[in-house]
């Protein structure tokens, strides 16, 4: 395609014809002379120049406003800029110190600011009054106070701030249990009385003795007292005063016949002391378990069974008569001082034999065997034990031979007699005899051979080797070992495989010199001639096959390509070129060569950029003939980008990214890019919604063009509307919570309300006492009480309300058969008399008696004669097991007093709390102790009395050990039981035990030795041995840091802990050598075999190579390195010696081949020579090893620590005689 050419570049234009330019839209020709140059067109740009189509750029000190370049004046609001930097203020404005035009107000606008000429705008929290002053506003009112700042109240005298803008009266005493209704004026709650103008106290009836009245009719007892059911305070003893009564807090008084044990318990006193018993009541003993009462208050021990041959000395404890000893708990057996072997002691000093035994002496009985036990001895009746070498068989002792005399008979212990055809090889082994030697086998029976493993029998005395695989391509020479045919070689698995001289790479050798290729390989075009001298042979190699010819690569394996340099494999066997850098908008066509896509052109070796036929205005070309706008612009046509304003340009137009030019009557907001309307005056209580048009805030209505006033839906009675729905009260009134103005009375209206400033009116049910106080009215009056509210009486102390406004006297308990006439005073009815404070009992006529429920009843009836029957004379006769305790009551009889219980039926007790019935005696109550009182006696509920040698600890009797039981446990009185690893000394103290005696140390803990200074622990023996630093080499550490050299060694120079061989000291040691150098010399001398030590390193002679194992360094001869001798061994440098059955190849001196033509004599001679050679080598090696071992034994050192320090743990195994486990290092 041909395009027009213009010699001069078209600026802001395009070449439409040869040497003819056409301006882009918005541009015009610069001049007739320079028609190729186009400049932007803007119209008139006064005080500036046209920089782009329809865009003026102002000169310095000018700015674009309304499309015109105008002079710049900083802060010329409310004025006009005539020239650069000079403002002229509008009417009603004046120039400030900061060179700003600010409005002027004559009244200074206190608590606000002047927003327009003579117009104030109040600060937040203030409002404008009619006289144009700003006063503070308290939104929730200011009850009993004055608003002194926005939402800040200042309370009147006698009031304080209780919550936000609420003032409440102050009562200095706090007005506890009442309500503060005015400054220092309280009204008490019900149940409380006023003791002063501002103090209320609770009332209690009856009064609180030993306590304080804390609430109406509620007492709080003093410390040490507790409240009873009748609201009285009684002293409290926390442990209930056992056998006593609580007379004061934590103070008990014992009952008669008891004495104090501690502050809370009393125990009974018995004059005799109750030995072996417990005093359970005054002068009443109860024996301990195992004892019984014999006489008054004396307990004697009980033994369950008679003490046979002895007598009872304690509960269940017998003491034996002379000549007897205790064997069982209650049985004494006779004593035979010299023992009674196999018999029984029937009386002191006399034995009687067991059955089957006969008496040997006065103290010994021997067993008897009827057979006499030949070859044994009698160990029990008719039971023999055989002598050594004999075993029991059918009740007789028979000799024993080690191998059961196979093929023979055992005639004596370990002695056999062989059968015919066998001969004795040892005393107990009989072996068979074969006339001919069993070759490759052994004789298993007379003239019978058995082949060795791996052989089979081919004649009665000949065995031949067996090869499992049949030795294909060879023959069997020994069990499992084949010798291969010519052209085959033996593998490690023992099979014979063919040999291909050139190898069979990528194939398989199937016969000598014959290969077959593996799958994927071929010999096509791969056969070559290999020539040696005048001899040539054809060799075919297996080459891999690739189906796609490996373009840009080569075939290295079947169907596997390897790419050439500069190419890489992108898919299966496909090689593509590589470019070091990505071909942007193009593709790589050869190594490091890019080709651009259609619509792109090269700008560098690896970069292709898009081509746009027309220039992109305010953008850039991103794709062929595709423009992308700059940031802040958007595409309006194919190649033109217009500016974008994100928030739009309401009331204006967008002239640059996010830059608006406002319409007339609007201006740009200070903190945003929005055109706001302009009002000549500030909108009071509203905002400017359009040019010179105000819109009121919510809750306001317009009163003039620029002023809005608040709206109150309800009329502000006694005030004015100061803010939406908020009134401001006139003087003498204050705002309440419902936003209404109520009158204020400076003096509080007690029991009344303020109806006008300074004027009170009583509440209903109250009457006027003074101008500001009203008292409650009670109908009818309030006798024995006080009227505290309309028709509400509060009774005085000692009185209680029985009906509305009626108070009667109160008695703490009900007046039985009487009435309460004054507080806690009863008056009896007629026919009754006062017996106790609140009980009036009837006066009974003759023939009647007073019952328990205080009734006059006949002297005897079914009710008052329980457990008995009434006689004709009116007396009550008690039934059997009951006794008359009073004129009208029969009580059960318990033969044994029910101590700690109540007799509820004849001879049956019901135990008190803390006691339970004795399992053997229903009339006896035993105390309960939760701990069980082991090693003691439970003598009161929860109280144990410990046995002698025990003490009570946490309710449990524990043994007492006066000696310290450290490392042990006190298990009985004065008896310690040592912990594991500790042993009791003669003094009874537990001391640590060490089984290994802690030589050169001391036993610190159980099996824990601590060495003395200068000694260290030898873990293997558990003892402390002397420590030498550094360790002794070729010596023994006998004392701390003192070495004693082994025999044949002497101390080395300058080192007291190194011992050297005295025979070679002069040749190996120098005076200046270090101990480590000396050590290396000796180690080399000890381990180097068939070599020479030079400065501690084993050096081999020429033709020898150094080999090493875990102990030795060997210099061995080298033959054909590195292949060595095939089927033979290297006897001397470059001299191979063949194995048996092989001979040297005539042309290959390092290869031994199988000998097939040797005669029997030649084979014998060669074997003989070979044996002599091995024998000679063995003797030489034995001499060398003995010499080395001699030095090694003299050099052995077990100084592991020293060698660890010198060689490290890794190489220690090569340089030390013993090593320790890494866990112990």
UniProtKB/TrEMBL annotation:
Query: Which PROSITE patterns does this entry report, sorted A to Z?
Result: EGF_2
Q: What is this protein called?
A: EGF-like domain-containing protein
Q: Which SMART domains match?
A: EGF
- Gene3D superfamilies for this protein: Laminin
Q: EGF-like domain: which residues? A: 416-430
Asked if the record carries the keyword Lipid metabolism, the reply is no
Pfam families given in the database record: C_tripleX (PF02363)
Q: Which UniProt keywords apply?
A: Membrane, Transmembrane, Transmembrane helix
Where, by residue number, does the polypeptide cross the bilayer? 1170-1193
